[in-house]
Amino acid sequence: KNVYIMKDRRWKKFGIIFGILAIVLILVVIIFPKLIDLNRYNGLIVSEVEKAVGGEVKLGRISWGISHGIWLEIDGFSILDASAFPGDVKLSRIYTHVSIPPLLKKKFVMNKLLLESSEVKMRLEPGKAHDPEDQGSANKLTSVPKEKETGTG
Fold first, then answer.
1. Which 8-state DSSP code applies to residue 132?
2. How many CB atoms lie within 10 A of CB 77?
3. Distance CA 84, CA 56 (A)
């Protein structure tokens, strides 16, 4: 009879410890994103992205959380006059969802990426980001591209 009582006490202790750990984990998932405000690092993020793309970067409000991975939402994002690629990008909202286990192995796996109200303008010739003759309509990705002049002998 004492053997059964000992086993019951062990399972009871295990259940209490497991319950406490589950509550702590839930609280961390709920509270942790509220404690770390990524908007405090807006200037640092903007300067690092500007270094990487060689252009002007604007970054709006950032929110994030943990739910089946890490999600990140940015309201307002733009890259203008970048030297890393021939175009300008303006987005009203970006939403992404990233898996956590690969992050522990220093890998980045994005499960979802949503881009809202995107405007992309392509520069067909380097150095002509804002051609006054062009008014931007021929440079939009959805319009017919300009033909390049070719000199023949």
1. T
2. 19
3. 12
> Residues 29-48: pLDDT tens digits?
777 777 888 899 999 999 99
Measured CA to CA, the distance from residue 97 to residue 109 in angstroms comes to 9
**Structure tokens given for 117:** 């109200």
Q: Give me the residues paired with residue 85 across strands.
A: none
The identity of residue 31, as a single letter, is I
Helix (H, G, I), strand (E, B) or coil at 146: coil
User: What is the tens place of the pLDDT at every residue in 43-69?
Assistant: 999 999 999 999 999 999 999 888 888
Asked whether the beta carbons of 34 and 26 are under 8 A apart, the reply is no
User: Encoding tokens for residue 92?
Assistant: 């009203």
Instruction: Report the alpha-carbon distance of residue 27 to residue 19 in Å, rounded.
Output: 12
